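Methods: holo model generation. Sequences were used as deposited, without trimming of termini or removal of tags, and paired with ligand SMILES retrieved from the corresponding compound records. Each pair was processed once, and we did not select among multiple samples. The sequence and adenosine-5'-diphosphate SMILES for this entry were:
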Amino acid sequence: MLEINNLSVSYNSNKRIVKALGPISMRIEAGEIYAVIGPSGCGKSTLLHTLSGLIPVFHEEVLLNNHPLNPKQHNIGFIPQNFGLLPWKTVEKNYLLSLKIKGNSIDDTLNERIEHILNKLNINHLKERYPSELSGGQKQRVAIARAFIMNPDLLLMDEPFSALDALTREEAQELFISLWNQYKITTLFVTHSIEEAIYMGKKIVIMSNCPGTIVEIINNPLFNTENLRQSEEYIRLSSYLRGIIKKGWSL
Ligand SMILES: Nc1ncnc2c1ncn2[C@@H]1O[C@H](COP(=O)(O)OP(=O)(O)O)[C@@H](O)[C@H]1O
Ligand SMILES: [Mg+2]
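and the model returned the structure below.
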């Protein structure tokens, strides 16, 4: 479980303090997936960088599984906007990297999990390639594989599908959710796409303009609905969200 208590983040920019986020408080139960949706510049990436440990936080402001967030102790997965693959390593070395860093040995059970994930994402044949030899969609699937193989306490994703064309994006979202339904990794992702929030967020957190605070948290009744994109409810919820969001947002 992730618990955020009154978290604010500021940057020190040219001797000026720039408030970028908060204060925000929220809680994500273990095995849930939350979408955070907010306008450009409201502090979405700042939130993820804070939770991933790139920006230090103070004791007790963020608890993960009841302990103050500590990137050295906790296992935190992060998929950045550009997928974050190391260009000088093969696909296989990329998805095994976090296991290697943690010193995990690969036993039969883990091997089975890895093969299952690779097959599901249809990237088994790409093991020996380098990231520069992959399409955007393939890079994205390798990044997803790496996250699920790592099996983190918390998975963070920063607009993970925004670099893909529409069709590839829908396919990647479907693959992600189908794996997520199987492994239920506690996930927080940010997006500026209403459609993505509805498709992938079990709960949808709506943020205000900078410095971002939480405007509303919506229980998404359409999560895991079959043929969601064609349904009337989907269109209705999209326009409801657009209604809340319309104040000064550029999506
Ligand atoms: N390294 C930084 N130094 C100073 N200001 C920053 C830095 N990174 C982001 N900001 C500012 O913090 C605010 C939030 O940025 P960011 O978290 O990137 O927003 P989002 O991801 O929602 O677009 C913006 O006003 C941005 O200009
Ligand atoms: Mg951002």
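The domain at 2-245 is CATH 3.40.50.300 (Rossmann fold).
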